[in-house]
Write a structure and sequence with these properties.
264 residues, mainly beta, Immunoglobulin-like, 2 domains, five-stranded mixed beta sheet, 1 helix, 17 strands, disordered N terminus
């Protein structure tokens, strides 16, 4: 019967590949596969641990499964899930996933082999330099034009798509979209979406997005107030003129009456 006690030199344990470089957009995820290989004559248990190079709060790395048993001569896949938060800043992030191999024997729990996989993550923001233009106060008789401008800062030619989701508490929602043609790396695009049918009175919340279809879009939220201000202004002027005319009538009547008496 084979001795269950293993020295490090007795274990043939390999991981492939030993380095991974991944480009991920903010708000996006990626998965990489590594192969664990047990070329020894003993069963081993492999456990994974993640170590980041420096402080980080925007990248998540999760090996799955975190623990795996390998029979003599056996192999297994471990999927490394890499996620980047919506708030991440573009740049580089480095980490290491360590795989510790130990004998599966309950009498020997010492680590008998360790291999590290270097993880390099390049974080990109595919759309930047985004600006929006639209009115905050809208006359009920007018349409609303949402204009967006953005630049392709990804690493391949893409299309930019803008959307304006208009929601209200008491009325139906509207969703407007506009898309560009192919945009080369570093080039900008101007998009325009039109809301033709504005209500008579409304306070609407607008969510504006501009995206290349990869990762989290650049987003802005705003409120739009819709009311017939032109008609209201006209009515106000009419009332003001009418009120002024009512005040002038007694005065004019008195003047004309005096003039009339003087003429007798």
């Amino acid at each position: 019967m084979a001795d269950s006690s293993l020295a490090a030199s007795d274990v043939g344990f390999r991981v492939s590949p030993t380095s991974i470089n991944s480009t991920i957009a903010v708000g996006d995820r990626n998965s990489e596969v590594v192969i664990l290989q047990n070329s020894s004559s003993e069963e081993i248990v492999v456990r994974s641990h993640v170590h980041f190079a420096g402080a980080q709060d925007s990248v998540e790395i999760v090996p799955e499964p975190a623990e795996v048993s390998l029979q003599p001569g056996g192999s297994a896949q471990v999927v490394i899930h890499i996620g980047v938060s919506d708030e991440a800043q573009p740049g580089q992030q480095a980490a290491t996933v360590s795989f510790d191999a130990a004998s599966s024997s309950t009498r020997d729990v010492s680590i008998v082999g360790e291999v590290g996989v270097a993880i390099g993550v390049e974080i990109i923001r595919p759309v930047s330099d985004v600006t929006w233009s639209f009115p905050r106060f809208v006359d009920s008789s007018e349409r609303v034009i949402f204009q967006a401008k953005g630049r392709n800062t990804g690493n391949f030619t893409t299309r930019l798509e803008g959307s304006a989701d208009i929601s209200g508490m008491f009325e139906g929602n509207n969703s407007l979209t506009a898309a560009s043609g192919p945009i080369s790396i570093g080039e900008s695009a101007d998009l325009q979406a039109v809301w033709d049918e504005t209500p008579l009175f409304a306070i609407k919340r607008v969510t504006l997005d501009l995206s290349s279809g990869i990762g989290a879009p650049v987003e802005q939220k705003a409120f739009i107030i819709v009311f017939p201000w032109k008609l209201t202004l006209m009515l106000f002027l009419i009332l003001a003129v009418s009120a002024a005319g009512g005040l002038l009538q007694p005065f004019l009547a008195k003047v004309f009456s005096s003039n009339g008496r003087r003429g007798d």
